[in-house]
Specification:
Folate-binding fold, two-stranded antiparallel sheet, 15% helix, 37% strand, globular, binds zinc ion
Amino acid sequence: MRITCPLCGERDRREFNVKGAALDRPGEGADQDAWHTYVNLRQNPAGVLAELWYHEMGCGSWLTVTRNTVTHEILKVELASQTEMGGAA
Ligand SMILES: [Zn+2]
């Protein structure tokens, strides 16, 4: 599988580490249940999923990679800081 980093171009997936589904981070003051869900619960769907990937052996950017978990087709790659999911503090 190859991933096109917005900064580095097309690279082998072994340059990246996947960190799981790109979920909406709970806001400041969110309750314990919201944090428990964010940190521990994953749905692992078969199909299209947005995931966080780290370009460890490249530019060091966090990416939001939207891919089909069945076919491994990559539909979109964006800098996580520029997506709604990765932009929350
Ligand atoms: Zn990169």
